[in-house]
Design brief:
alpha+beta; 3 helices; globular; Cell Division Protein Zipa, Chain: A
């Protein structure tokens, strides 16, 4: 079980706000420049490179007790926090970091657990 925060381009939020379901339309890719800037800022929040595959690039928080993972995909960035002993602090950290960096790179923060957006 885990908690997650997803970041998307503004048009994804607009499509959902218009009544579409998440899987009913193509999602706009996140520009490479935005991903690079997000990663640059993410490192400043205490995250480090973990791995890379054809589908995604993964970073983790240096506080290993939190277990926060950040995965960069073509159309979304996903923060994932496992429910461990420090999960409350980790969830707060992941949510704060996602929100602060999203503002700088023009992305919208989506909370899948309750279907809300950080405005």
């Amino acid at each position: 079980m885990s908690y997650s925060v997803h970041l998307y381009r503004p048009d994804v939020k607009a499509a959902l706000d218009s009544g579409k379901e998440m899987d009913e339309f193509p999602h706009t890719p996140i520009p490479e420049a935005a991903k690079r800037e997000f990663i640059r800022l993410l490192v400043g929040y205490g995250y480090e490179f973990e791995s890379q595959s054809d589908e995604c690039v993964e970073y983790i928080h240096t506080n290993k007790e939190w277990g926060i993972q950040v995965r960069f995909f073509n159309t979304q960035i996903a923060f994932t926090v496992p429910y461990w002993s420090q999960s409350e602090n980790a969830i707060m950290e992941a949510s704060m970091t996602a929100s602060e960096i999203a503002w700088d790179v023009d992305l919208k923060v989506f909370y899948p657990f309750d279907g809300t957006w950080n405005e």
